[in-house]
Specification:
11 helices, 261 residues, single chain, ATP hydrolysis activity, nucleotide-binding, AAA+_ATPase, ATP-binding, Rossmann fold, Amino acid/amide ABC transporter ATP-binding protein 1, HAAT family, alpha/beta, 4-stranded antiparallel β-sheet, 40% helix, 6-stranded mixed β-sheet, globular, 10 strands, 2 domains
C-alpha cells in the first residue's frame, strides 16, 4: 500500500532518515520500533507530508505522493496522530469529532445565510456519526465533556476517533501508549484491532511498549540511525544481532532475559 524508497531527510549535516526503504502491506498493523533518535517520527512526518524529504520517493497504491501536503494526503485517506494529542480543549469530545470532515456546508458565509436547512441536516448527520464513533470507542460517556479536561489516554482515543470521521485508509500512530495507563492502553489496542479487522484500516504504529507491539503488530520493522535494520515478527526481531547491538546491549533480548531470570 505504501512503498518508501531510499528516503533521506537531513537537517543541516545530520541525517535523521538515511536511505530508509520499506513497504507497508495493505490491511496490516505494522510496528515501527527502534532506539530514541532512530528516525521513526521523522520518517512518519515525511510520509505524512509534515516534512519535505531531502531525497527519495513515497508511493501509495502505485501513485507518487512524495512531498504532498497533509491536506492532500488527508483526502487520499492517509492520516497520522501525534505523540502529544492535539485536541480543541474548549470544545466537547463530540464537537471535536464533528469538526473533522472537510468541506462542510457551514464553512462559508454564503451558506450560513442561504443554506441553513442544509447545514442543520448536515450537523445532525455529523452528530450521529460522532456519537457512533464515541460508542465504538467505549467513551460515549465523555461526549459532552470538554476535550481539554479528559485524561491523556482518553485524548488518544479521541484522536483515533477522528480517523473514523472520514474515510481513513491508512493511519500512522505515533507512540499511542505514551503516558497511558494499562487499562486505557488495552482499550486503545482493542479499538485498533477492531478497526483493522472490521473496517479494513491499515495501521503503522510507533511504540516502545513491546507487549503492545506483540499483541497488535505483524510485521515489525526496526530502525536505527535513520536506516531500516530488520523486519519480521517480533520474535525474529528480538533474536536479530543487529537489533540487539542497536539497543547497546539493553535492548529487547536482554529485557526478555531479565524478565525470565
Amino acid at each position: 500500500m505504501i512503498v518508501v524508497e531510499n528516503l533521506v531527510k537531513t537537517f543541516g549535516g545530520f541525517h535523521a532518515v538515511d536511505g530508509a526503504s520499506l513497504t507497508i502491506r495493505e490491511g496490516s498493523i505494522t510496528g515501527l520500533i527502534g532506539p530514541n533518535g532512530a528516525g521513526k517520527t521523522t520518517l512518519f512526518n515525511v510520509i505524512a507530508g509534515v516534512l519535505q524529504p531531502t531525497s527519495g520517493r513515497v508511493t501509495m497504491q502505485g501513485q507518487d505522493i512524495t512531498g504532498l501536503p497533509p491536506h492532500d494526503l488527508f483526502h487520499r485517506g492517509l492520516l497520522r496522530t501525534f505523540q502529544i494529542a492535539h485536541e480543541f480543549p474548549s470544545m466537547t469530545c463530540r464537537e471535536n469529532l464533528m469538526m473533522v470532515p472537510a468541506g462542510q456546508t457551514g464553512e462559508t458565509l454564503w451558506n450560513t445565510w442561504f443554506g441553513r436547512k442544509r447545514i442543520a441536516n448536515e450537523e445532525r448527520a455529523l452528530r450521529a456519526k460522532a456519537d457512533e464513533v464515541l460508542d465504538f470507542l467505549t467513551v460515549s460517556h465523555l461526549a459532552d465533556h470538554k476535550a481539554g479536561q479528559i485524561s491523556g489516554g482518553q485524548k488518544k482515543l479521541l484522536e483515533l476517533g477522528r480517523t473514523m470521521m472520514v474515510d481513513a485508509r491508512i493511519v500512522f500512530l505515533d507512540e499511542v501508549g505514551a503516558g497511558v495507563n494499562r487499562t486505557l492502553l488495552n482499550t486503545i489496542g482493542d479499538a485498533i484491532l477492531r478497526l483493522n479487522q472490521e473496517r479494513g484500516y491499515t495501521f503503522v504504529v510507533i511504540e516502545h511498549d513491546m507487549d503492545f507491539i506483540e499483541r497488535l503488530c505483524d510485521p515489525v520493522i526496526c530502525m536505527a540511525e535513520g536506516r531500516v535494520l530488520a523486519e519480521g515478527t517480533l520474535a525474529e526481531i528480538k533474536a536479530n544481532e543487529q537489533v540487539i547491538e542497536a539497543y547497546l546491549g539493553t535492548g529487547l533480548k536482554n529485557k526478555d532475559q531479565v524478565a525470565t531470570a
